[in-house]
Amino acid sequence: MSAREISKLLFTTVYPLYVQKAERKNRTKEEVDTIICWLTGYSREQLSHHAAINIDFQSFFDQAPAINPNTSQIKGVVCGIRVEDIQDPMTQKIRYLDKLIDELAKGKSIDKILRQ
Known about the structure:
Pfam families: DUF2200. It comes from Geothrix limicola. It is a single chain. This protein is mostly helical. It has a single domain, classed as uncharacterized protein sp1917 domain (Helicase, Ruva Protein, domain 3, Orthogonal Bundle), CATH 1.10.8. The protein is built from 7 helices and 2 strands. A two-stranded antiparallel sheet has the order 1-2. Helix 2 runs parallel beside helix 6 and helix 3 runs antiparallel to helix 6. It is globular, with a radius of gyration of 13 Å. The relative contact order is 0.18. The model has no long low-confidence stretch (mean pLDDT about 95).
């Protein structure tokens, strides 16, 4: 999927899939929300609002209050590509989120996921 195509995916469509993935692995929606809020700077209320409206990833990240400065510590592979090597900034943010949700589903503690 090209960078342009991935940025046009609706966050509203993907968010419930993140929650389902976490819940299948006995994690919670609250943990998913914690991760997304940590990454984007959104409050839980702002996140709930964005999850309820039709917003694509491009707009979701463009409107984010503050991308966490510790994102440079997120490393690993998503869809066969190392997230730290992705050149397109928007695609990298989306893949950071994918990586964090993967870590949650694999049982990693929230403290480690949030690079604390």
